[in-house]
Amino acid sequence: MDSAILNCNMQEGLKDLFSRKALFVGLGNELKGDDGAGVFLVKELSRIFSGQDIPDPSRLPAWNFLIAGVAPENFLGKLSTAEIIVFVDACYFGEKAGEIAFVNPKELKGYGFTHSFSPALIEYLNTLGKKVLFLGIAPKNLSLGEGLSTEVKKGIEEFIGNVRECMNLP
Question: Which of 40, 41, 139, 164, by CA, is between 20 and 30 Å from 65?
Fold first, then answer.
């Protein structure tokens, strides 16, 4: 589904974010298999960007991280302070399980989010002048009580590797 993928590849999308103050928001329910992928990915990014494993933390971008779970509207105060908001969530966008891409939520049409996510929130943040991006993770399994699928774990590992490579991080 090429129309849902923004006109940039993953590397370009990440590089654009490096020089900006971004807030990565992990969405999803960790008790429902791959629905927790957004939360898991944001926790991993937060761990990397804590600076503990980085020889020169001053090279790190001005990124912040927030775990919002299934209720991002409860964090409007924090969301309104960011220059760019990157929602990270499992969603169906026509790719195989584990694929991660910047997607346009308005163009998901026959696909969609794995739980209720209000487009009104994105519209509200846009009225505040915020740039809102959506990083989608294609799920495989949304069963209650299951952990992340092997495919989604692998996709997240590859994404983290891309981030490290783009930033020349160990």
Answer: 139
